[in-house]
Amino acid sequence: MKDELNGEKLYDILKKEWGYEGFVMSDWGCCKDAVKSVKSGLDLAMPENPDFVPRLLEGVPSGEITEEEIDNAVERFLRFALNVEKQESTLSPEDCHDICREINEEAIVLLKNEDDLLPITKEKYKRIAVVGEFAENPVIGGFGSSTVFPDEDQVESPLKFIKDYCGNDIEVEYIPIYQTNEYLKEPHFTALKYMPIFEEVDLVLMFVGREVSVETEGNDRVTSHLNPLFEFIIKRIYPRNQNIVLVAQSGGAFMNLSWDHKIKSIVQMWLGGEAAGSAIANVLFGKVNPSGKLSETFPTKTRTDIDYPGDGYKVCYDEKWRIGYRYYDLHTDEIWFPFGHGLSYTKFEFSDLSIVNTENGFSVECKVKNTGDKAGKEVVQVYFSDRVATFSPPKKELVAFKKTKLLEPQEEI
Fold first, then answer.
1. Of 3, 12, 27, 386, which one is the catalytic site residue?
2. 197-211, pLDDT tens digit by residue?
3. Catalytic annotation present for 153
């Protein structure tokens, strides 16, 4: 928006009409001219720019900006900074680590689990192979503003916890064929030397993911496909062992349909933070029953109907509401795993649905029963469909969701 329009909204609406007493801060690198930005209502430009103060000092004698306008911005920021109350955290580092683990466990999504390959038990498996350095050095977060720097001794290795679970009952073969943060470091011919091992194990746990440089801000991904080396290895493991579990570390959806039929189980662990190791191990070995659901559609192909990347100067967003799952509901042939999808190690049954009209809208209730033999949680999702609209609405829209408590086998709420 133009500076004058920003000024109208920030001064007249935000600060005067709404009585906002805080300060206005820019996003990183958005301010190109200190004088115009401050006159338009900005109080703090981020990050620090050594050219801004000299520019403001030039603007006062030239009449472009007044000392009063500068003082107003400084006063707002100082008022905030001097009145912030120091708060002592009641959480220890150990408490934070446990919370991180719990969040990760709740978010992990079981996308696929043919032949009940998971969870891993000593009754089913005597020897397993863990493939890829992602198992030892996981990608715990994105790059850029989302980067965090936990203490190195706090970052968990999935491999360590897998070995702890296996103990003396299950033999673990660790095969770091490929590295975590490099695209194609391991040559194809080198990977072939590990192939005989896969004929001797009962299960293959293949940890894959995107490099940190891809999970970043400031630029778009070039492709939604994962490293082609993964496909190369999968296609060579498959003739030797069909019990393959794919454990994916990524911040968003990925596509690799060419090898989907060769994978019996897929676990999306996202970017799990410092406690990712114990969280994913708890899910793989059944201590935690996965209950996460997809917050986006995993497609079979990249959309080609949108105006992107535009003409180099502008991009026209004319798809309106036809984005995300609302678009894929109209193109179901492009869905790999749908929005809201997520499996469990147990089964659930919904019954006694009721919808009551209230003063504030509608109240939706139902019974949920765990009909399987393992304790677990389920997410009830409520979608709305407008069948009498005079315009073209989405087929359905998510309007509410709620996760149950942990339900024991045959328990109903």
1. 27
2. 999 999 999 999 988
3. no
